[in-house]
Amino acid sequence: MAYVLAGGRGSRLMELTDRRAKPAVYFGGKSRIIDFALSNALNSGIRRIGVATQYKAHSLIRHLQHGWNFFRPERNESFDILPASQRVSEEHWYEGTADAVYQNLDIIQDYEPRYMVILAGDHIYKMDYELMLQQHVDSGADVTVGCLEVSKEEAKGFGVMHVDAEDRIISFVEKPKDPPTMPGSTDRCLASMGIYVFNTEFLFDQLRRDAATPGSSRDFGKDIIPYIVKHGKAVAHHFSRSCVRSSSEAQPYWRDVGTVDAYAEANLDLTDLVPGLDLYDQDWPIWTYSEITPPAKFVHDEEGRRGQAISSLVSGGCIVSGASLKRALLFTGVRINSFSSVENAVLLPYVDVARSARLTNVVVDRGVHIPTGLVVGEDPEEDARRFRRSASGTCLITQAMIDRLA
């Protein structure tokens, strides 16, 4: 059984998560962030999935109901949405990632899974969990932890594994100032991906023990994994061994799109001639809910009023009417009107850009109406006064910000 932890807000995404949890944030033109973990599970052959939700879960739950309702009980498949509902105590919602599993032990027990794959629902990557599960069984580990190879500087923001030559985890440190490096390396570290494989009964025992431990934060990374490292057998699994890559993907791809800059960059990277993430790989599809929409449409062919797009991704239902796009990603149903230009931009579903607007280096939230003649991305001080402008110059635009301009 795959159990996806999807309750977090993702506050560094600022207003993008004011109305939705981070796993429900749109990505790649058609998908939501959570679709990557769910698609990995489905493509890996896992047919029992649970999703734990908490923060502002309506958008996420609606997406899961629309896009992931094809599992059939008569085929021994199941898909459970598990909102925090004070099932253990009337005083507590989910207190941490481990508690989000602990509070649903009875539901998991009903399915009698032999192994549990615990997943974070807020990262972009393609991975075959079956290979990690096979390593877990072969090694006889109590827990197998999915790990990324990162630089020593990057490792300071992760939970870091110190491993021996056989990849057994000797110690686990959360966001260390001086991260331990991999065997045989002076500048590469193993960082936790927030992916764990357990034998189910062992996991249950650990969750019950942790729940009875005073002062625990009820978290896998802070409590459960460090305890097993000290008292059991924890083994690292290298992402490079199970990363799914098409022939066009040169390097293992994993992104935490947890800031506005990282989010914009990862989306716009998809417009590159050969992007780091291949969404066209039909051998490992990213499943999602697809709205029924007409094809994208480009109209007008006059000088200064030509519907055109260069190095851009344009989803169904979009109309580019006498406007120009350059390195832009348009989600479903976006409308861009005449004499406007959009560059280095991520426009979420049903954005409407009025005439003669110029948008550069922007992320525009769902349903925003950009007024006639609005210029963004040319005056840093003016942008920062009106919108959420990052240190790298990306402007996040919401309808509330537009309304304040009136």
From TrEMBL:
Q: Where is this site: Could play a key role in the communication between the regulatory and the substrate sites?
A: 54, 93
Tree of life domain: Bacteria
Sequence ranges assigned to domain Nucleotidyl transferase in this UniProt record = 3-271
Enzyme Commission number, as recorded: 2.7.7.27
Give the enzyme class.
transferase
InterPro entries attached to this UniProt entry: ADP-Glc_PPase, ADP_Glu_pyroP_CS, GlgC_bac, GlmU/GlgC-like_hexapep, NTP_transferase_dom, Nucleotide-diphossugar_trans, Trimer_LpxA-like_sf
What does the annotation say about its assembly with partners? Homotetramer.
Q: Which family does it belong to?
A: Belongs to the bacterial/plant glucose-1-phosphate adenylyltransferase family.
Q: What does this protein do?
A: Involved in the biosynthesis of ADP-glucose, a building block required for the elongation reactions to produce glycogen. Catalyzes the reaction between ATP and alpha-D-glucose 1-phosphate (G1P) to produce pyrophosphate and ADP-Glc.
Under what name is this protein listed? Answer: Glucose-1-phosphate adenylyltransferase
Q: What is the scientific name of the source organism?
A: Nitrospirillum amazonense
This chain is encoded by the gene named: glgC
